[in-house]
Specification:
single chain, mainly alpha, Rossmann fold, three-stranded parallel β-sheet, about 55% helix, globular
Length: about 200
């Protein structure tokens, strides 16, 4: 929990370019995309919102209740995301950078660790993580004027449990950032990590 906060700080305060896998995953299922067509073929027109876009809440209810369906959806989206990351990294403006941040929430689950030369994991206690996701969900619902329904605690818990346990991720990390306290302390930890453990010419996930 805190990937976006860390990525935004690195981009805005340290001018390090960020490639956000969440944005690429949304592109993968955008209206008119082949992957969205495959999802509709599998789950029917009910998986779409009235405007023809993917109903992410409905899809989430399916895939977080049935691991086989989550695996199928991941198999559609993850190769697309990986290809887009590799294509972006090969562009001249990225090749010229000494450091690029790859913000990939499912880095381990999607088997993309080979894309990075250093791995950072952002951590907080599970109860705190759930509360923050619930607060963000309510905020997004309000911003959408009710078009998006806020998540329930059970829905959030199911999503977290579907991922690799955070403590296992921490074991594989080069840097672990504690996001259980204030933003100021988190920013200080980021600055320290950059100064002490971040060699030149690498990609950070």
């Amino acid at each position: 929990m805190g990937k976006s906060t860390v990525s935004r700080y690195l981009e805005q305060h340290h001018q390090i370019p960020v490639i956000d896998a969440d944005i690429l995953a949304r592109d993968a299922v955008s209206k008119g995309s082949p992957i969205l067509a495959a999802i509709v073929q599998r789950y029917g027109q009910a998986i779409l919102r009235p405007n023809g876009e993917l109903d992410r809440v409905r899809l989430a209810d399916i895939i977080f209740q049935r691991s086989s369906e989550r695996l199928w959806v991941d198999q559609q989206i993850h190769p697309y995301v990986r290809h887009r990351i590799e294509t972006t990294l090969s562009q001249p403006e990225y090749l010229a950078q000494s450091t690029v941040v790859l913000a990939i929430p499912l880095l381990f689950e999607a088997r993309m660790t080979d894309l990075a030369t250093e791995i950072w994991v952002v951590w907080c206690e599970s109860d705190q993580q759930i509360d923050r996701i619930l607060q963000r969900s309510v905020s997004l619902s309000e911003q959408s004027n009710g078009a998006l329904q806020p998540l329930s605690r059970d829905q959030v818990t199911a999503r977290i449990q579907a991922q690799m346990d955070i403590r296992r991720k921490m074991q594989y990390a080069d840097v672990v950032l504690d996001n259980s306290h204030s933003l100021e302390l988190l920013y200080q930890a980021i600055d320290q990590a950059l100064a002490t453990t971040f060699p030149a010419q690498q990609q950070l996930a």
